[in-house]
Write a structure and sequence with these properties.
Order of helices and strands: EHEEEHEHEEEEEEEEEEEEEEEEEEH
Distance between the termini: 31 Å
Oligomer: single chain
Strand order of the largest sheet: 6-8-11-14-17-20-22-23
Helix content: 10-25%
Structural class: alpha/beta
Radius of gyration: 18 Å
Strand content: 25-35%
Length: about 230
């Protein structure tokens, strides 16, 4: 049993979840643009095909607690939007229950203002614009060049792809996905688990689990889980 009320872990050693291109990207950014030291990678045992990635060890997630116990490392889970961000949410919650703490990464090349609120296990990549009063939850990925306007809120477990533009006062719900170059008009609510396709222009609130494509965005007769795999 691990004490979740223990003092915060001060170690700079980090394990990344994944052994794919997303994990490589996070490893590169942390190595060249942070004080963190990536010790290795972890994946589900069923997907462990190589024991090395980027020259570092890859260990089964099922054995992580034995090899790198909580308190010796912190975690970062740069997983994509599989199962409408459900896989990243599940592994994040599992690791948290195991007693692990998480880092966050905000690129030094991102445009930010004082008092930006960013939760744990969140990555904000280069040239993202985070305007005053923007808030970002935990377990979120905001990719390069995204524009998060003033008073926007990006809730836990969401994914905002490169080049997205959110107008002011937009709320992005939990596990929502907004695709490459999409535009969301100011004041809208992107509902939980919405899937916004690449280049879509969203002019009205979306529905939970809805899939939206086109300009102006139209709702498809499919669910977000069907689009992203389950």
């Amino acid at each position: 049993m691990h004490n979740n009320n223990a003092a915060p872990v001060s170690t700079t050693d980090v394990i990344l979840f994944g052994a794919d291109t997303f994990a490589s990207l996070a490893w590169f950014c942390l190595t060249h643009d942070s004080a963190y030291n990536v010790r290795g990678f972890t994946v589900d045992a069923a997907y462990l095909t190589n024991t090395r990635h980027e020259g570092l060890p890859v260990v089964p997630f099922e054995q992580l607690i034995e090899i790198y116990p909580p308190g010796t490392v912190r975690l970062l889970l740069p997983l994509g939007y599989h199962a409408i961000n459900g896989l990243r949410r599940e592994r994040y919650q599992q690791a948290k229950a195991m007693g692990y703490e998480f880092i966050r990464y905000v690129s030094s090349r991102a445009s930010t203002w004082p008092n930006l609120q960013v939760g744990e296990n969140t990555l904000i990549y280069e040239h993202a614009i985070m305007q005053p009063f923007a808030r970002v939850g935990s377990n979120v990925i905001i990719r390069s060049g995204a524009h998060i306007s003033h008073h926007c809120e990006v809730a836990d477990h969401a994914f905002v792809a490169a080049g997205v533009t959110l107008g002011g006062n937009v709320r992005v719900g939990e596990q929502a996905f907004i695709g490459l170059g999409a535009v969301v008009r100011d004041g809208l609510n992107i509902a939980e688990r919405s899937f916004i396709g690449a280049g879509a222009v969203v002019l009205k609130d979306t529905d939970v689990d809805g899939v939206y494509v086109g300009n102006p965005a139209r709702k498809l007769e499919r669910t977000a889980l069907q689009v992203t795999g389950g």
